Every structure is written in C-alpha cells, then in structure tokens.
C-alpha cells in the first residue's frame, strides 16, 4: 500500500477529522469481549490476597467501567514502590492478562520486599472493543500530560500523583501487533489528515527505554529474563525497530515525557515499556502472557538489587 493510495474508511484524505468524523469512527466500534468477565472477575478473585480499590470510573455514552488498582496487602512506607500498568491500549491483550497472571502467580514472591501497585487494565473501553484509542478517538498513551484530555490517563495520573518520588520502578506492558500496520496507523494518519507511511512490524519482543533517563543495564536484565520465555525482535535492515534505532539487544528509546507516554507518569528511576508480538508464528497467547510476567519479574529483581 503506497501513501498515495492509502485509504481509511473515515474522513477525507488530507483533512483532519472533526466532530462528524469522530462520531462516524465511534459508530464503527463494537464490543467484542467482556471487561467484566475477563478482567473484573479476575481482579475480584484476588481480593482475599491483595488490597483492591476503584480509583475512578469511565463514563462514556452507553458504557461505564470501573478503574481498578491492586496493591500489596501490607503496604509499608519504608519499602520502595513498584508500579505495573497494563492495557493502556485496550487491544494489547497480554499487557492486561500478563499483569493479572503476575498478580496471581508471582506477586507474593515480593511480599516484604516492596510495595506493589498494579493497574491491569487502564483502558477498559478499548479492551472490550479491541481498540487502541478511547471513545474520544484519543490515544491514552500519548495523553499523560497536564490537564489530560483522556479520562483514562487523567485517572491514572491522579492515582500515582501521591506516590511521586517514591516509585523506584515502573513497567508498562504493551504489544506491537499486525493491526498496528493494518488498522491503527492508517487510522492515526486519517484522523490527523496526514499521509499514511507504511512501516514494518518486528517479529519478537522488545523494550522501550527513556532517552532522557537511560537505564541500559536495567533494560538488559529484563531482556535476559524474557529471553527465557520467547524470542527477542531483531533489528530491521536499517538497524531499527518501528523506525527507531536499536541501541542494544531488543531495546529502542523514546523521550517518554515529551511524548506523553504512560511510563513517564511516576518519575521512577527505572522505567521500561514492554512490546510483545502476539501475531508471531513462534509465540502462543500463553507465551505472550508469560513474557510479560517474565519482564515484570526481571524488572523487579533488578530494581530491588540496585536501589
């Protein structure tokens, strides 16, 4: 598909969307799975082992969702805080299910070592619709900015704000999928009235470090743990992954705060964004979840050893 012939079924090429186009896009979004069954029920099952709280509620026309956070049951202000977030992009399934699996299977290993704050699904509207954006056609992971226009992002920022300066590590769980290229990047180009520039989807797991706060040893510790579970994405012919230079094995960098990315929200010393590739013929859905769990474990172990 060339940029000249790229087509998206909403809007006029070269013209940014207005209210009518956003409404047309919204009408195309259909519920495809249940947040209540696949997320809320699993969180509820953890209530006997963790402190579960509702930190907000999404209230879109015809759709309301609780925003749920899970904390260590014996919170100790003398211990460092570790933040795990998933489902910033609702369609990135293993980010959500991996966070839930970590809570169920591995979180107890860190009792008395740190305070865990886990938000498994930041964007439940997007989770149900397998959608990157929220109902306002905004990307929550470009909206971690003052006075955020995205309610998902604003609610998470408010949750984390009292912990600023106390969060040692924040890992944000994501996926890069084939639909990034077939649906979500064309939609972004159409929404913003820009030409669609075709890209390449990497086959494998990779991480995004903060170019303003590089932690290369931390990133490699996470990669080493994930590599036990699934394969790491190689650089493309240009030495890049999704258009960014590969700075180390399986690692690229973004300026997190400047881009309004979730991993900038806490000001943690150690931050990383995972990117699992669920469409690989070499990875099963369970491997994708396991890779997210491995990433969280690798991140926690390194941060605790290098406080």
Structural class by secondary-structure content: alpha/beta
Look up the CATH topology: Aminopeptidase
Strand ordering within the main sheet: 1-2-4-3-5-10-6-9
CATH superfamily: Zn peptidases
Using the coordinates above, name the CATH class.
Answer: Alpha Beta
- Number of helices, counting only DSSP H or I runs of 4 residues or more: 9
Shape: globular
Number of strands: 10
Number of domains: 1
Strand content range: 15-25%
Uncertain segments are 1-5
Mean pLDDT: 96
**CATH architecture heading:** 3-Layer(aba) Sandwich
Main sheet record: 8 strands, mixed
Radius of gyration: 19 Å
Order of helical and strand elements = HHEEEHEHHEHEHEEEHEH
Pfam families: DUF2817
Protein name: M14 family metallocarboxypeptidase
InterPro entries: DUF2817, Peptidase_M14
Family: Belongs to the peptidase M14 family.
Provide structural commentary.
This protein is an alpha/beta fold. The chain has a single domain (31-177, 198-305), classed as Aminopeptidase (3-Layer(aba) Sandwich), CATH 3.40.630. 32% of the residues lie in helices and 19% in strands. It has 9 helices and 10 strands. The strands form 2 sheets. An 8-stranded mixed β-sheet has the order 1-2-4-3-5-10-6-9, sandwiched between helices. The chain has a two-stranded antiparallel sheet with strand order 7-8.
List the keywords.
307 residues; alpha/beta; Aminopeptidase; eight-stranded mixed sheet; two-stranded antiparallel ribbon; 9 helices; 32% helix; disordered N terminus
Write the layout of secondary structure elements.
Elements: H1 19-27, H2 35-44, E1 51-60, E2 63-71, E3 81-86, H3 93-105, E4 115-119, H4 124-129, H5 151-160, E5 167-175, H6 178-192, E6 206-210, H7 216-226, E7 240-241, E8 244-245, E9 251-254, H8 256-259, E10 270-276, H9 285-305
Parallel strand pairs: 3-4, 3-5, 5-10, 6-9
Antiparallel strand pairs: 1-2, 2-4, 6-10, 7-8
Helix pairs in contact: 3-9, 7-9
